[in-house]
């Protein structure tokens, strides 16, 4: 029985294996990214019914004596069903899952990031039309926890951060901002001063207080474009869900990558 483990996780990817099995990738507080095999999940009418779906939060018991741990049973905590009923909220949740899938590794658990993931899913299920704003807030915490918080304190050249130096631009290769007086580069991402201030607050606020921040359409577009380009630079790939998001009613993202 020492090989049996019980853990709570959120499903971030599913894959069919053969005619009856499923490969489940989840993100957990303790283990980080975790891949598990659900034997017979495609055929079972009782054992896993409506449990092994994207975004679902589960408690699972698994046997880790195999190379690919096998799920014994799963108990559904929350399916976040509204996310599957609104296209833009679905694509926003898919994008968050892609970030966790490509960035996180096994045995790389992070309690604050896991709590932020649950906060994001709960808020998105409650406010399915606020996908852009919630994405900005989640990604602010995500990159901060990874150790890649953009430096938005002031212009990296002259040290100014006020209206006289606005507008600013974000340099993906440096992770810093630069003001209009010092700006000499092509391809930097436009960033208004109000957007910079809102993002700076998002980095500092605890997860339970993130809902206090309100971003207008321009701030959401600028911030999402920043995270898309910055993430592509760091990861050396552009996630597919970004393109889907731009056609999902959240507004076209002016990709400068």
Structure description:
- This protein is an alpha+beta fold.
- The strands form two sheets. Strands 3-2-1-4-5 form a five-stranded antiparallel β-sheet. A four-stranded mixed β-sheet has the order 6-8-7-9, covered by helices on one side.
- The chain is 33% helix and 24% strand.
- It has two domains: 76 residues, Beta Barrel (OB fold (Dihydrolipoamide Acetyltransferase, E2P)); 159 residues, Recombination protein O, C-terminal domain (de novo design (two linked rop proteins), Up-down Bundle).
- The C terminus is likely disordered.
- It starts with a strand and ends in a 12-residue tail after the last helix.
- A hairpin with a 3-residue loop joins β1 and β2.
- The chain contains six helices and nine strands.
Layout of helices and strands, plus pairs?
Elements: E1 4-17, E2 21-28, E3 32-38, E4 57-63, E5 70-78, H1 87-103, H2 111-126, H3 131-146, E6 151-155, E7 168-171, E8 176-179, E9 189-191, H4 193-204, H5 217-235, H6 240-245
Parallel strand pairs: 6-8
Antiparallel strand pairs: 1-2, 1-4, 2-3, 4-5, 7-8, 7-9
Helix pairs in contact: 1-3, 2-3, 3-5, 4-5
Could you name the ranges where pLDDT drops below 50 across 5 or more consecutive residues?
249-257
* Chain-averaged pLDDT: 91
Shape: elongated
Identify the CATH architecture of the largest domain.
Up-down Bundle
| Number of separate helices | 6
CATH H-level superfamily of the largest domain: Recombination protein O, C-terminal domain
CATH topology of the largest domain: de novo design (two linked rop proteins)
Total domain count: 2
Q: What percent of residues adopt helix (DSSP H or I)?
A: 25-40%
Q: What is the ordering of alpha helices and beta strands? A: EEEEEHHHEEEEHHH
Query: In whole angstroms, how far apart are the ends?
Result: 51 Å
Q: How much of the residues is beta strand, in percent? A: 15-25%
Question: For the CA atoms, what is the radius of gyration?
Answer: 20 Å
In the CATH scheme, the class of the largest domain would be: Mainly Alpha
Q: Provide the structure class.
A: alpha+beta
Number of strands: 9
Largest sheet: spatial strand order: 3-2-1-4-5
Main sheet attributes: strand count, strand direction, barrel closure: 5 strands, antiparallel
